[in-house]
Design brief:
The complex is a heterodimer of chains A (279) and B (464).
Chain A: E1 2-11, E2 14-20, H1 22-27, E3 33-37, E4 45-53, E5 58-64, H2 68-74, E6 81-82, E7 84-89, E8 100-106, H3 110-122, E9 126-133, H4 142-148, E10 151-156, E11 163-164, H5 167-176, E12 183-187, H6 190-203, E13 207-210, E14 226-229, E15 232-235, H7 236-239, E16 242-244, H8 250-257, H9 261-278
Parallel strand pairs in A: 8-9, 8-12, 9-10, 10-11, 12-13
Antiparallel strand pairs in A: 1-2, 1-6, 2-5, 3-4, 3-7, 4-5, 13-16, 14-15
Chain B: H1 16-19, H2 32-39, H3 49-52, H4 60-68, H5 72-82, H6 86-92, H7 99-102, H8 114-127, E1 142-146, H9 150-161, E2 165-169, H10 178-181, H11 190-202, E3 206-208, H12 219-224, E4 230-233, E5 239-240, E6 253-255, H13 256-265, E7 282-286, H14 290-301, E8 305-309, H15 321-329, E9 333-335, E10 338-345, E11 351-364, E12 370-374, E13 380-383, E14 386-389, E15 393-394, H16 397-402, E16 428-430, H17 433-436, H18 441-463
Parallel strand pairs in B: 1-2, 1-4, 2-3, 4-16, 6-14, 7-8, 7-14, 8-9
Antiparallel strand pairs in B: 5-15, 10-11, 11-12, 11-13
Helix pairs in contact in B: 2-4, 2-8, 4-5, 5-8, 6-8, 9-18, 13-14
Classes of the chains: A alpha/beta (279), B alpha/beta (464).
Chain lengths: 279, 464
């Protein structure tokens, strides 16, 4: 049981929680994830660590309310407990030796991109952050990115925030203008990461993508999180979650990600109705 | 005068047609009358061949002798001297190749139903209301056990009984390991596993769930910072194996681990579960072990028409005999001497069919079993919408990669001295699937037992 010390809405569908989890906070590194169950009957939800405080023993998670499980999690209040909270899982982001990096985040993926940008910034690397959202109301972590980056490109689909366009437009512009990156790190929707990787492949820039597939145990037991990287089956939970973006079979990953779409939609509607009745 | 009937008392079971639609236990257990009758079939041989077939060396004739007199609690005490999980083993041990395989009565007729008697004795004990467990006085030594499956629970139990302060670390949110995530409710009710774990807690064993050793904590931290003098690694089997054939990552292809975990640990078969599972119409289960049978029978219970695809013949099926029989009774088809060569998908990326190649048996291979040889041009398309791969596992890399000096086999299994479970690291012992690769519950228990004795010797020696 882990206490929620702080809960904040970042936008209408994205919530931040600071959770008391000293054992996890002691070890967590950017790029790693935790798995939680909101209540004793809940699904195991994998969430990437958004921030951590080793001294206070806290771990921050940021999640989008997309289904029944995340809706249940969002129903917990400050001071209440998350039933299970295990981690840190997966391998940390490899940041060693990087001098100049473009961090490309999309939507709630920015919550995961942020600690990576922060760590790179702290180790003295030049960080260019490219952040994209559908619209102004969905923007999260704007100030945080500004503090952790030498340059922030703000993109929105409808032009209501920053520039109108996709993150790939901004990244392309940066590369074309002569910026040379040791690496591009991208975290966001699969379709966005697919196009970021396709773009950087043209320029021969090493690119790492953070994958968030369906998983259950998160420790290398179920094999649900498998994906094809360079023609070989990999397990995101123990081999990743970050992989060489130019080698990932994104189309397969997108198809697998939709495996339970119908079930999820149905369960979400049921959960929403339940919460409505309760209120 | 022993009962000389040639046949065992049959196990009362749920009707196959009924049980194929529910997850309640299939075998219902003996009545007292049946147990007394069956116990009297034992000849109480002096040379006790059955005991040599038991990985934990239960004094089988002695417990059956007590049972035959109706002294079931005495019988339980004799079993408990050697086994910490009798209610579990009575249900899941492959008795036909162990104790019952050696039974003299089996030479002419059927062996004594040792497993069924063990189960009866254990269930009867567990049903008693006030079984008081006395927590032994601490001897001041701390031992950490990694994993709460059969080997870990056995090791923890044996050490706790000797006064060790034992903490069990479990990566999942629920203790029990394969007994809760792998073996289905209809074969091993989870209440039985919980009872065994509660028993250990009453002995003073601490169970810490949601801790992944190799990530949350390392073995070095356990020993250097947290004061554990010895560690037992019982972390179990690891990553599921796949066949590396085209189409394996289509939607509708599961590893048996994932399929069973969704059903058993996450209760996906229940209407109130929030965990999704595909309710396939035509399901192929690839493999022939106990895990394959469990997956096939779960899929059947979710409403599918199920076919087990196995590359050898019925005689070579590695699964426990009773599981194969139960599966057949429940209407599961077996496609023997066949191996998938590819899985085809539809436009939405879901499984559409499995292409299998038929085989014939050739010369025996290293395992002594005749090797299946593909028959050219024998490929056949089987329409399926779900495929479950039950091909075994390869060891989890987490502990190996975070524990310096821990020697492992080329294939990843932890190297141990067979008679002690001692690893290449001082004070670190291991057993179960993490050492042997996928094996049985009772072998893992035997390894946990061996290691507990060795840890006791190691630590009581350091005390002197």
């Amino acid at each position: 049981m882990n206490r929620i010390l702080e809960k904040r809405s970042l936008n209408p569908t994205v919530t931040l929680m600071k959770v008391e989890a000293p054992l996890v906070a002691r070890k967590a590194e950017p790029g790693q994830f935790i798995i939680l169950r909101a209540d004793g009957n809940g699904e195991r939800i994998p969430l990437t660590v958004a921030d951590f405080d080793r001294e206070r023993g806290t771990v921050t998670i940021i999640f989008q309310i997309v289904g029944a499980a995340t809706a249940t999690l969002n129903h917990l209040k400050e001071g209440e407990f998350i039933h299970d909270f295990v981690g840190p899982l997966g391998r940390p982001t490899h940041t060693e030796g990087l001098k100049k990096v473009a961090v490309v985040g999309g939507g709630v993926g920015c919550a995961i991109a942020y600690p990576v940008a922060k760590k790179l910034h702290e180790q003295g690397a030049v960080v260019h952050s490219v952040t994209g959202f559908r619209t102004k109301d969905l923007v999260i972590l704007e100030k945080e990115f500004e503090a952790a980056s030498d340059l922030v490109c703000k993109m929105s689909d409808d032009g209501s925030w920053g520039e109108k366009g996709l993150v790939t437009d901004a990244l392309k512009k940066l590369i074309e203008s002569g910026e040379q990156y040791d690496e591009v790190i991208t975290i966001g929707p699969l379709i966005m990461m697919k196009f970021v990787c396709a773009l950087t492949k043209n320029y021969g820039i090493k690119t790492v993508a953070s994958m968030n597939p369906i998983m259950i145990d998160g420790t290398g037991m179920c094999g649900g999180c498998r994906l094809t990287v360079g023609g070989v089956t990999k397990f995101a939970c123990v081999d990743g979650p970050e992989f060489d973006g130019h080698e990932i079979d994104f189309d397969e990953a997108m198809a697998r990600g939709r495996m339970y779409q119908d079930f999820e939609r149905h369960a979400y509607e049921e959960a929403c109705n339940l919460f409505k009745e309760a209120e | 005068m022993p009962n000389m009937r040639l046949t065992k008392n049959p196990m009362p079971s749920q009707d196959p047609v009924v049980r194929a639609g529910n997850f309640s236990e299939v075998a219902l257990g003996y009545t007292e009358e049946m147990a007394l009758d069956e116990a009297q079939r034992c000849l109480n041989c002096k040379h006790k061949p059955c005991v040599s077939g038991c990985p934990v060396r239960i004094d089988i004739p002695a417990f059956i002798h007590e049972a035959a007199q109706g002294s079931f609690e005495e019988a339980y005490k004799i079993i408990s001297l050697s086994s910490s999980l009798p209610a579990v083993c009575g249900r899941v041990c492959p008795q036909e190749s162990q104790c019952e395989g050696k039974c003299v009565r089996g030479i002419k007729g059927e062996p004594v139903g040792i497993g069924r008697l063990e189960r009866y004795v254990a269930d009867r004990h567990n049903a008693m209301e006030s079984v008081t467990v006395e927590k032994p006085a601490s001897n001041g030594h701390k031992v950490a056990v990694i994993g709460s499956g059969p080997s870990g629970l056995t090791c923890a139990g044996d050490l706790a009984k000797k006064g060790y302060e034992v903490t069990v670390y479990e990566a999942l949110h629920l203790a029990g390991g394969v007994l809760v995530y792998g073996i289905p409710e209809f074969r091993l009710p989870k209440a039985i596993v919980q009872k065994e774990i509660d028993g250990l807690k009453a002995l003073g064993v601490k169970v810490e769930t949601n801790v992944v050793i190799g990530r949350t904590l390392t073995i070095d931290e356990l020993m250097r910072e947290m004061g554990f003098e010895a560690v037992f690694i019982g972390s179990g089997a690891g990553l599921p194996k796949f066949m590396n054939i085209p189409g394996e990552n289509l939607k509708g292809v599961y590893s048996a681990n994932e399929f069973l975990t969704r059903i058993n640990l996450m209760k996906a078969y229940r209407a109130d579960s929030t965990t999704p599972i595909q309710h396939g119409k035509a399901v192929a289960v690839v493999g022939g072990g106990n895990v394959a049978m469990d997956a096939a029978r779960c899929a059947k219970r979710l409403g599918a028409d199920v076919t087990v695809v196995y590359r050898r013949t019925e005689a070579e099926l590695p699964a426990r005999r009773e599981e194969v029989e139960h599966a057949m009774e429940e209407g599961i088809h077996f496609c023997m001497l066949s191996s998938p060569v590819s899985i085809e998908g539809n436009e939405q990326g879901w499984v559409k069919s499995v292409k299998v190649q038929h085989m014939e048996l050739g010369e025996p291979d290293a395992s002594g079993r005749r090797r299946p040889v593909p028959i050219e041009g024998s490929e056949e398309d089987m329409p399926m919408d779900c495929v479950i791969m039950a091909l075994g596992t390869s060891p989890n890399p987490l502990i190996k990669s975070t524990t310096e000096g821990l020697e492992t086999q080329r294939w990843g299994g932890i190297v141990v001295a067979e008679d002690t479970g001692k690893t290449s690291r001082e004070g670190v012992y291991a057993g179960g699937d993490a050492v042997t690769g996928a094996a049985t519950v009772i072998l893992a228990m035997g390894a946990g037992k061996t290691a507990a004795a060795a840890i006791d010797e190691y630590l009581s020696g350091s005390n002197a």
